[in-house]
Amino acid sequence: MTDGDVAAFTHLGSTVRGALSERGFSTPTAPQRLAIPPLAAGQNTLVIAPTGSGKTETAMLPVFDHLVADDGPPEGFGALYVTPLRALNRDMRERLEWWGEYLGLEVDVRHGDTTQYQRGKQAENPPDVLITTPETVQAMLTGERLREALQDVSHVVIDEVHELAASKRGAQLAIGLERLHDLAGEMQRIGLSATVGDPEDVGQFLTGGRPCEIREIDVGSNVDVAVRQPEITEEDKELSGTLMTDASTASHVRLIRDVVADHESTLIFVNTRQTAEALGSRFKELDLPIGVHHGSLSKEARIEVEDRFKTGELDGLLCTSSMELGIDVGRVDHVIQYKSPRQVTRLLQRIGRAGHRQDEVSSGTIVTTRPDDTFEALAIARRAREGEVEPAAIHEGSLDVVANQIPGIVQSRGDTRFREAYDTVTRAYPFRDLPEETLREICSELHRNRIVWFDEGEDRLETTGGTWQYVYANLSMIPDEETYEVHDIASGQQIGTLDERFVVNFAQPGEVFVQRGEMWRIAEIDDEEGKVKVSPIEDPAGEVPSWIGQEIPVPAAVAQEVGEIRAVAQPQLETGADAAAVGRELAHRYPADEYTLTEACDQLEKQIEAEAPMPTADRIVLERQGRTIVLNACFGHTANETLGRVLSALLGQRAGSSVGLETDPYRIELEVPSSIATSDVVEVLEDTDPDHVETIVELGLKNSDALAFRLAQVSAKFGALKRWQGQGSGRISNERLLAALEDTPMYEEAVREVFHEDLDIERASAVLAGIQSGELELVTQRGRTPVGQGGRSSSGKELLAPENADASVIETVRERLQNDRVILLCTHCKDWKVKTKVKRVSDQPECPECGSTRIASLNPWAEEVVQAVRAAEKDEEQERMTERAYRAASLVQSHGKRAVTAMAARGVGPHNAAQIINKLRENEDEFYRDILSKEREYARTQSFWD
Fold this sequence. Notes:
single chain, Rossmann fold, Arc Repressor Mutant, subunit A, 6 domains, 40 helices, 15% strand
């Protein structure tokens, strides 16, 4: 043991040092060596280190030491240990209880499930250390006896503070800590965090702007990451039959299987629950000891799989971000990240779960699937090694959090001067710049909703009959979302639930989604009953899920580095080097094998061979084919989404119709009416004032379901939602809600939240300014390019639908379409109607009533179209539906069953069906291949065309 090792523990008293020996702590871990000295001196400290590196003991040993010092623990609570984990870490609790027992200190837990009896005991005889959650702190601040006990708090430890800093839960806790300060005075604040890019900001968030020592472990130098795209082998071709997928996807499964087999215990991180489910079903097919763990599973299912992994019954655990936080699953010796982790912080948090005992290197493998994915993973791996980490994105000035806290302040203090409430709120770091006038508006809104009484004349806040009820119904800033039951329409059985957010933003009849590792098509949504009726898709190989979960946004810095890699490769390829040679050059800087780098660079080689310009960090390439326009722009998710919305809104105005939009970190893809010329897009980019971006985007948001959904959540925190729902039961319409709450703090907050989480106004404005100043080059290109087409496959889609459909997939599409149901309606007599499967339709359908061959083929849920055709007097919408039915009937009259088959496909109406049918082709497989292509195109743009 070196002098440096000994030095950390010498800052602790003899009682705690004796416990160290008993517990087997002979050598301090790296965070303990760095952080115990300032902590023992009572300084506010932020400790940044990987999960599982001994951070809990780092924080708590000096706290225990202080509590067992000469004076002994206080009568009330001595220390609070606040963790954001909803399921409290059992291992952490057992460890802290051991220390408490040995040192003669009482350690207890209080959270939502704590019994009333146990709560009463804690109020009467407060434990020395209380482990609790941010929400329970809110409840404790309003209890009379608990407030008395809280006056003795001298230490507060906030675990996973990086997670809280970037959320409204954290903003709420920041005000809660200032309310605690008003009770207990100055107290030592200790934050435990994973690696963040702005430690000073997170430190200020923790302390409310007070001095803060930062003690950070250099995680990057202790991380060993390899990026690998698997080479397709003969075994993968055989596996593809078993897994009902293509050989490429089979190679991903095989590589993960092999890496898991090479290690004792492996966490396999994926980016969405859908991918976890899809991969999990593949491993189940192979009967491998790999479990699935994500937030949609029940608590019991999660605990069971955690325990099976901990005991070694499972070799691997497929998990989402739920496993980034400190859930104890025992020893992990390797981490696999399936596909790019999207952000440096996520890679470090995930890989950091492996091999962290006594400062071992954390080893991990990123399994990539295509060039974008590989280049992105390479950039992230390099940035992780160099410690170039993203900031925590603190929620600044969340107005619904303020609205949530004012009733709590008034309930706990009684009559309160407005200025005192304002001082408490603005001492919290996220609200340091809150204007006094804004708080007055919030208090006035709460007064109107009878949550608090606000006497503006005397500047005084008082409780009302509704204050207490509001406080206890709104302890959490996690939105209370309704859930919809999902029922199999055939059996009537419930198969699961869907979040309200999913249903509001994405669910429509005909949409496809994944649940329980299976794919389902939505048949009907009943908002009153809160039910979604679905039908199973027997074989997923020919289907594309139209909703795949919200993607983790790729930051601009990572996307820019991908652009820089392309810029480095371009001159080498232009002077005759091939993809393998460029790959070998990149290997000096990036951690990947030759095959992986060559495969990724092959896309860039094809771009040069096509004599197409290379999109880079400072070159935007605008390419067009037909109605599809793609801007290749390496600015990351949120900036591209913002630019895309600006383009979509302004081009839509010019055309007088909607413009389809899809974005990824490297592309903005637009589906435009044929009246829009390429020069129109260039003109918008070159002439739009960068200062107008925010206004244009906000105008585009005004009538959106996404904003209405956020506004409903925000207004609930103000107590305003039920006032606008009036006397009737059920849901308020989005239009009414948006109209009613415009020009209120609630509307302002809903817009702020959308901007904060989904958009980047500042960078999008800078891109327009760069184009207009010439700092960014803008070039146009006719036709699609290899790089421009590289973003077609994202998230978990290819696990379920290979991009290049092979013979087995074409057969699946054929079978699926032949078994799909359609409504046949005679548009001549309008009496005859039948619902049947496509395979039962004759080659040339005709009406048995009148003998006409003008038979419309409609989707099985299109009863409103039938009613429109039969209506004597029609409104504008019914006229439109009738015209569409007549076009379908004309197509069936000309092409018979072939037209019925094409129109049974998802998103393929008469116009697309005519294109498919009229195309000359060598065999029938090509007919089904073209149908699948149209379905995929529709899945990408559907939400913008409805």
